[in-house]
Structure formats: structure tokens, C-alpha cells
Amino acid sequence: MPKNLQDTVKLNNGVHMPWFGLGVYKAQEGDEVVSAVKAAIRAGYRSIDTAAAYNNEEGVGQAVREAMEENGLRRDQLFITSKVWNSNQGYETTLQAFETSLNKLNLEYIDLFLVHWPVKGKYKETWRALEKVYKEGKVRAIGVSNFQIHHLEDLLSEAEVVPAVNQVELHPQLTQKELLTYCQGKGIQLEAWSPLGQGHLLKNDTLVSIGKKYGKTAAQVILRWDLQVGVITIPKSVNEGRIIENADIFDFELSAEDIAAIDGLNQNKRFGSDPDNFNF
Ligand SMILES: NC(=O)c1ccc[n+]([C@@H]2O[C@H](COP(=O)([O-])OP(=O)(O)OC[C@H]3O[C@@H](n4cnc5c(N)ncnc54)[C@H](OP(=O)(O)O)[C@@H]3O)[C@@H](O)[C@H]2O)c1
């Protein structure tokens, strides 16, 4: 169980990834994303989750460089994730997309690069390209996102490198227990996107009342639950107060009853797209 914001989990290739990070989907390129990332690193965050599709890799890279300078951090103390977008899937196009992400971030390397969605008929070729950049040492770990068990089975039947991470929608109304157990069995670390249900879960009575026992908000209860069930979490905020609030979860522990109550909120409900039925 992580004890602070900088604590890491050892991925299947030995690379250490922070349990907690900042998501920047919908954070506007320019001042908004730069100030959010800098506020997060100032507050002690060490992991940032972006993607080519978020159109803010340049701002993320700029913020990372400025924050390293201002906070006396080395590059190896930070962990940067990006992802290849669907329209660039395929072998050559993914190799190019990786270089574009690296150039936009303007960093020496990327820590984790993910296949953003399991595009049918393409994701295995995309994976081969990720294996190549991984073997060349341009990225420290490679993984997937939005992969269901059958996608992973299919990928693993031919992959040389087992994905280090699978980043999926996961929150109290979509607890993903079957996928979590499957990934744990294969040494694939599960990571939660939209952990706060894009903000929709924060008035939930169960979460609010559990929070009251500990003097914590519903957001903090959810994020603590992620860590206690063994899932990396990357809540998004561009608001400094909420960036700090979301990370203030290392001074309390949810009881087994609380965990069971939160698990019991599952409805297999998605706020985002279904990985078996998306058209982008
Ligand atoms: N791989 C994928 O396909 C995929 C898909 C979606 C997301 N993601 C990643 O996962 C990250 C997180 O998911 P998400 O951005 O969809 O949703 P989220 O983190 O569940 O929720 C973000 C929303 O909640 C608000 N918020 C954050 N903290 C709050 C707090 N303490 N109190 C009240 N409101 C709060 C934010 O607003 P403010 O910013 O105004 O605070 C924002 O509107 C993304 O940024 C992205 O990095 C990945």
C-alpha cells in the first residue's frame, strides 16, 4: 500500500511507476495545462498522463521542464505517459506518431506509451511498433488502454512484450473486478481513467457518508479506494485547490467494510465509450 504521493509500483519490467498521477484530458493547451501540471508537481505529484489526442503534449513538456528547474527535480524523478491515437494505428504510422509525441513533449524519453484504444485489425501492428521503440530504449515501458480480456488474450497470443499497464475506465460504478483479477494474473498493472466518473460520482450518498467518518471528500474516498484495491489512479483537475485535495489521501485508511460498500456501488456503468463498440 503506497504511503505517500511519490510511492511507486514496480511494473512487470522492473520500472517503477507512481501509484498516483495527474490526468490532463480536456486541459487546454497553453496556460491551462502548463499551470495545472506545474501546480501538481509543486504539490508532490510525480506522474502526468497525456495523449496525442489531448492536443496538449507541448504544454505538458514545457511544464515538466519548468517544474524540474523550479523544484530541483531530475527527469528520472518524473513519470510521463502518452498514447498513440487511433487514426495513427498500424506499424509505420505508430512509429511516426511516437516520434511526434516525443518531439512535442520535447523530452529525452517517454516513461510509458500506450495504445489508446483497441482498434480492430490494427492494434497488433501498433503493438509491434511499440515493442520496437521499447527495445530501442526510447520509452521505459509500453502498455495498452481500453483493452478488455479478449483483446488482451488476442494480443498476448502474438506479443513478445507483455503490456506493463492497461489503463481503463474504472470507478465505483464500474469496478472492473474480472479485468482486475485477469490483469493481476498476467502481471499487467491496471490503471483507472475517469476515477471520479468525470465528476458525476462526487454527490453519491455512500461515498459522501464514508468520507464524513474520516473528514474526507467523496473524491478523496474514491481515490483512496483505487489505491487500496491495487489500481493506479490519475484524476484530472486544472484547479490547484482540487489538485491538492485529490492527493491528500495518505493519512487515512478505508476499513474493509467501507471497501465492500464502495465495491457494492458497481453497476457496470460507463461514462465514456465502450471498448467493444466505439466508432472513432
Ligand atoms: N485512456 C483513455 O481512453 C482515457 C479516457 C478518459 C480519460 N483518461 C485519462 O484519465 C484522466 C482522468 O479522467 P477524466 O478527466 O475523464 O475524469 P475524472 O478525473 O474522473 O474527473 C475530472 C472532472 O472532475 C473535476 N474534479 C476533479 N477533482 C475534483 C474534486 N476534488 N472536486 C470536484 N470536482 C473535481 C474536474 O474539474 P476541474 O478540472 O475543473 O477541477 C473534471 O471536470 C484524464 O484526464 C486522462 O488523463 C484516459
Present the secondary structure layout:
Blueprint: E1 8-10, E2 16-18, E3 22-23, H1 31-42, E4 47-49, H2 57-71, E5 79-84, H3 91-105, E6 110-115, H4 123-135, E7 139-145, H5 149-156, E8 165-169, H6 177-186, E9 189-193, H7 205-214, H8 218-228, E10 232-233, H9 240-247, H10 256-263
Parallel strand pairs: 3-4, 4-5, 5-6, 6-7, 7-8, 8-9, 9-10
Antiparallel strand pairs: 1-2
Helix pairs in contact: 1-2, 2-3, 3-4, 7-8
The site of NADP nicotinamide-adenine-dinucleotide phosphate (NAP) has 27 residues, from helix 9.
What's this, in brief?
The protein has 280 residues and is of the alpha/beta class. The protein has 10 helices and 10 strands.
Bound heterogens, unique: NADP nicotinamide-adenine-dinucleotide phosphate
- Low-pLDDT stretches: none
Assigned CATH class: Alpha Beta
Overall average residue pLDDT: 98
**Basic shape:** globular
Helicity, as a percent range = 25-40%
CATH topology: TIM Barrel
Q: What is the CATH superfamily? A: NADP-dependent oxidoreductase domain
The secondary structure category is alpha/beta
The CATH architecture can be named as Alpha-Beta Barrel
Distance between the termini: 37 Å
How much of the sequence is in beta strands?
15-25%
What can be said about the biggest beta sheet? 8 strands, parallel
Helix-strand pattern, N to C?
Answer: EEEHEHEHEHEHEHEHHEHH
Number of helices: 10
- How many structural units, i.e. domains? 1
Number of strands: 10
What Rg do the Cα atoms give? 18 Å
Biggest sheet: strands side by side, in what order?
3-4-5-6-7-8-9-10
Site (Lowers pKa of active site Tyr): 83
InterPro entries: AKR, AKR5G, Aldo/ket_reductase_CS, NAD(P)_OxRdtase_dom_sf, NADP_OxRdtase_dom
Protein name: Aldo/keto reductase
GO molecular function, one term: oxidoreductase activity, acting on the CH-OH group of donors, NAD or NADP as acceptor
